[in-house]
Write a structure and sequence with these properties.
The protein has 12 helices and no strands. The chain is mainly α. It has a single domain, classed as Glycerol uptake facilitator protein (Up-down Bundle), CATH 1.20.1080.
């Protein structure tokens, strides 16, 4: 009996680790691709300077592609602000949120480094580092980033909420990113994503006013989470359930509640169950 319990516990830990490691790799890969294509569209080539519309469309399409690829593996956060919003909304545990943000920052840095390596030296210049326009104050910049991220996170919640919609959220989230860039480029170059700003800043070592691209998006994300989860579409989670999700024990309980499969032919249903565990995030 004791050996059976140990075997079951070992199996549950292995399954949970497999799910989490897959999710972290998905966040790393998705953020890296997002930065590579997004920042790449903003590089100032002498023969054809990028237009605002070109940059907005590229970020739009890149977002749609990576969300389609990774949203069932990790929830396709690709953004520390989105991860914080899910944490505030009791939809992800604190340990998983910290791991997600680390994977996102690492992915953004890797994506920026790859882009930097393949870009000619005379084209790099500021390398897509977010900067505040000279006529825009820091307070205005923070406010703009707050509002841009607010609408993005609200769109993410609405697009991924099983109570509201089904299917892939790729197109709607991509459109939300494009809307933000059509306005935000004039003010701050449009971040809405601390990881996107972090990747470029690390590679070229330029962190002037970098705090704006954390404070604005993170504040907007928290407000969006509160508005969506407690005003627009409040859920019925109790305080005990929220604490269980926050500490990560809810994930373990959900895995333990799954009956072990007796046949390998049922592996597809196991994958679906593990995706549901992952979607605590």
């Amino acid at each position: 009996m004791e050996s059976d319990r140990r075997s079951l516990a070992k199996m549950l830990v292995c399954r949970l680790w497999t799910t989490i490691s897959k999710a972290l790799f998905a966040e790393f890969l998705a953020t890296g691709l997002y930065v590579f294509f997004g920042v790449g569209s903003a590089l100032r080539w002498s023969l054809a300077l990028p237009s605002m519309l070109q940059i907005a469309i590229t970020f739009n399409l890149a977002t749609a592609v990576i969300v389609q690829i990774t949203w069932k593996a990790s929830g396709a956060h690709v953004n520390p602000a989105v991860t914080l919003a899910f944490l505030v909304g009791s939809q992800i545990s604190l340990p998983r949120a910290v791991a997600y943000v680390a994977a996102q920052l690492a992915g953004a840095t890797a994506g920026a480094a790859l882009l930097y390596g393949v870009t000619p030296g005379d084209i790099r210049e500021n390398f897509g580092v977010n900067v505040v326009r000279s006529s825009v104050s820091t307070g205005q910049a923070v406010a703009v980033e707050l509002v841009l991220t607010l609408q993005l996170v609200l769109c993410v919640f609405a697009s991924t909420d099983s109570r509201q919609t089904t299917g892939s959220p790729a197109a709607t989230i991509g459109a939300s990113v494009a809307v933000g860039h059509l306005i935000g480029i004039y003010f701050t170059g449009c971040s809405m994503n601390p990881a996107r700003s972090f990747g470029s800043a690390v590679i070229v070592g330029k962190f002037a006013v970098h705090w704006i691209f954390w404070v604005g998006p993170l504040t907007g994300a928290v407000l969006a989470s509160l508005i969506y989860n407690f005003i627009l579409f409040p859920d019925t989670k109790t305080l005990a359930q929220r604490l269980a999700i926050l500490t990560g024990t809810a994930e373990v309980e959900e895995v333990e509640g799954v009956e072990p499969q007796k046949k390998e032919s049922q592996s597809s249903s196991e994958d679906t169950e593990m995706e549901n565990v992952c979607q605590v995030a």
